[in-house]
Amino acid sequence: MKKASDLFIECLEEEGVEYIFGVPGEENLDFLDSLSRSTKIQLILTRHEQGAGFMAATYGRHTGKTGVCLATLGPGATNFVTAAAYAQLGGMPMMMITGQKPIKKSKQGRFQILDVVAMMGPITKYTHQMASSDNIPSRVREAFRLAEEEKPGAVHIELPEDIADEHTDSLPLKRSHSRRPTADVKSIREAVKALENATSPVLVIGAGANRTMTGRMLLQFIEKTGIPFLTTQLGKGVIDERHPKFLGCAALSSGDFVHRAVEASDCIVNLGHDVIEKPPFFMQRGGPTVIHVSSKTAEVDPVYFPDIEVIGDIANAVWQMKEDIVPNGSWKFDHLLAYRQAEVEHTTPLAEDARFPIFPPYAVQQIREAMPDDGIICLDNGVYKIWFARGYTAYRPNTVLLDNALATMGAGLPSAMMSAMVYPGRKVMAICGDGGFMMNSQEMETAVRLELNITVLILNDNSYGMIRWKQANMGFKDWGLTYGNPDFVKYAEAYGAHGHRVESAAHLKELLAHTLSTPGVHLIDCPVDYSENDQILNNDIKRLSKDL
Description:
The protein is α/β, with parallel strands linked by helices. The chain is built from 22 helices and 20 strands.
C-alpha cells in the first residue's frame, strides 16, 4: 500500500512529466511532499497561478506533451481560469491540478470552497474530482489522453486533502500507443479532382496545421504543384515565409492585400481551419470551391460551409494529395503573387522609417534582423500583434508564439520563459505592450531565479493601444485608456534583471544585439509611436489593395 499523493506523482512520472508549475497551498501539502521526493519532476514555483498556467500551456504548444500546473483551492483555482481558456482555445495540452478541503469529513464549513469542477467544465476537455485513491491511475491517464488528442486542450483534476492522504495498492497505467486516423482515399480523390480542375487554387494554413510533419509534407506539396499559400496568425511558420509562393498572413479581418489574393482564387484548400481564429476568408454561395482538410469535420458557420471535407491526420492527407495530384499546366498564379508584391512594396518603406519614438514596422524589421533563424518571439496581446503577424517573416514552426485564440494579455512573458526552458540554446524574446507586461510582470523574479536567458521588449505608449486603435476607428474621442507606468529600467533592476531604455532608432538596433548576445534576463523599455495605426491599418491598406 502506498500513499495516494505518492501514486499521483508516479502516474505523472509515467506520463513523462518534466515540470510542474505553480503556487502550492495548504490543501496541496501531501502532493507537495510527494513531489519533493521525485527525481524526474521539477517544481517551478511561480509568483501567480496565471503565469504558471501560461507556462504549462506553452510547454504543451512546443512539445505536444501535456504541461502540468498546480494551485490550491478557491482563489488559487480561480486564478487558473484565464490560462485554462488560453490552452483550450489555443489547442495546447495542459493539465491543472488543484487542491480541495476534505470531502468525506471537514470541520471548516464552506471556507474557501467553490465548485471548481463545475467552474472548469465549460473551459476544459475534462474535469474531475478525485473521490477514491484507487481511481487515480485511470483518471490521470484519461486526462492526459484527452489533453493530447486532437484538438489538444486543457484538463483539470481536483485532489482533495483526505483523498491525497489515503493509501492504495493501485499502480500507474502505461501510456497507450495510438496513431491519428488517416483520411479516406475517396475524399482525397475528390479534393485532388477539384484542384486539378481549378484555375487559380490557393492554400490557407491554419492553427490545426501547426503539427509535427505537416510543414514538411506541405512544402513537398507546394514544390510539386507550385500552388501559393497564405497563413492565419496561428499558422505562421508552418512553412518558411521566405518561400516565393508565400502570399502573406491574414492578420487583419478583411481588406488586406492577402485577402484580395484569396478573393482571386477559385479553389481554396483550408488546412487545419479552427473557428477560434477570425476567418481568413468569407465563403459565399456560388463562390470558390472550398476544401476543408483537418483532423476534425468543419464547424459550419454563416461564412464557412466547405464543399469537400478531407478528415484525418493533416500531414498524411497532404502527402496523399501530393502523391495523387497531377499539376495543371493552365493554372495561373501571377495575379495572386502580384498582391503579395504590392504588400511588400507598401511595407518596405514603412519598415525603413527610423523615427523616434519607434515606428512599429521599423521595430518589426529590426527584431527580425536581430533574431536568428531558430529564434523565438513570444507576443503578448496588443495592436503590435497585427504589425508582427503581417511583417515578421517566420522561418520555422513555433518561432512566432502569437495567441490569436483567447488573445489574452499577460501571456507574453511566461510563454517566453517557458520557451527558454524548452530550448535553452536558442534566442528568445518576449514582446509585450506596457499594459500586457504589467499583468504578469511579477514573473520577472521567476525568470531571474531560474537564470533564464531572455529579452523582454516593452512597446511603451502609456495606454491600452489596441483599444485606442479601435476607439479611433469607430470615431469616438480618445478617452479612458491612458495611464502611467513605473520606470521599467529600475523595475527590472529591482528584480535583479538588466534594464535598458531605447533612446533612438539606431539605439534599438544596438540594444537588441547586446541583449540577445548577453546572458541573463534583459528588459528593454521601447517608446513606440502608434499615431498612424488607424490611418495605415484601417485606411491605406484597404484603399491600396482595393485599387489593384
